[in-house]
Design goal:
five-stranded mixed beta sheet; 6 helices; Immunoglobulin-like; 2 domains; six-stranded mixed beta sheet; alpha+beta
């Protein structure tokens, strides 16, 4: 809104929508801070609003120095450029908040690593806790995997440093082919603290065929019951050669040649 005073234009108030944007950013910031995420977010948001105020102040000074002329085409163009500048600054503020400060909001708090291997290789999948959402005194979950693709020995695992550094009891059992159950509870008032990061357990498998496969986290219990998850993935290397490597020696020998000749003759 503008008003005419002695042939000059004075800008009153802020651009329409700026108070709503300010309220939205501050509310979003306070909500995240209350959840323990991005503790410096409010300061950054207020800094961004301060930048907007500086731009608006420059706009006021500009119009105080300009004579009123509604037919001035250049004045209209400059007004449009200033409005675009406000939009760009507002957008950058939101991008800074969401991309550079709060990227961890999309992080999965319980995850299984991704691995690549050849058939016949031993491969280790790491189960990790990332930025724990709350204190954890006990947890339980199961790992589903393809028994046709992977073989697991229930004695072949390692306890991660996140569980080794405190007092607790871990159970790990192969319930059935393709299903592992893992549970842990603390002792002597120990707990995994909120925002903790680290490895819970490492599981070792043997790759037995040439198909990609997944390791899925299911049946979460206790203090991790509703946490976001990231499942693991096994990608087979040299997949095409794997399918013709009959004796699994990673070499092209007489058995592979015979197999190829039979396959070609059938076609």
């Amino acid at each position: 809104m503008r008003t005419i005073v002695r042939g000059r234009t004075i800008v009153r108030g802020r651009t329409q929508g700026s108070p709503l944007l300010a309220l939205g950013i501050i509310t979003f910031s306070l909500s995240l801070t209350a959840m323990g995420r991005c503790p410096g977010l409010v300061c950054i948001a207020l800094l961004g609003l301060r930048i907007k105020n500086i731009v608006l102040q420059h706009e006021k000074n500009f119009f105080r120095m300009r004579p009123v002329n509604k037919q001035n085409i250049w004045q209209k163009k400059i007004m449009k450029l200033i409005e675009i500048q406000k939009i760009i600054i507002s957008t950058l503020i939101i991008l800074i908040i969401n991309v550079f400060l709060c990227f961890e909001l999309s992080a999965k708090n319980l995850s299984v690593s991704h691995q690549s291997a050849h058939r016949g290789d031993e491969v280790t999948f790491i189960i990790s806790m990332n930025d724990a959402l709350n204190d954890v005194k006990s947890f339980g979950f199961e790992i589903e995997y393809s028994h046709d693709s992977l073989r697991f020995n229930p004695d072949d695992y390692e306890i991660g440093e996140l569980l080794e550094q405190g007092y607790g009891y871990l159970t790990l059992d192969k319930i059935s082919p393709g299903l592992i159950r893992i549970g842990w509870f603390s002792m002597l008032n120990y707990k995994i603290p909120k925002h903790a990061n680290g490895i819970l357990v490492k599981l070792k498998f043997t790759v037995v065929n040439c198909n990609d496969t997944k390791l899925k986290i299911v049946s979460l219990l206790d203090h991790i019951e509703s946490w976001p998850l990231e499942n693991g993935q096994l990608s087979i290397l040299d997949k095409d050669f794997c399918r013709i490597d009959i004796d699994n020696d990673k070499k092209l020998g007489i058995q592979e040649v015979i197999f190829l000749m039979k396959h070609l003759s059938e076609d």
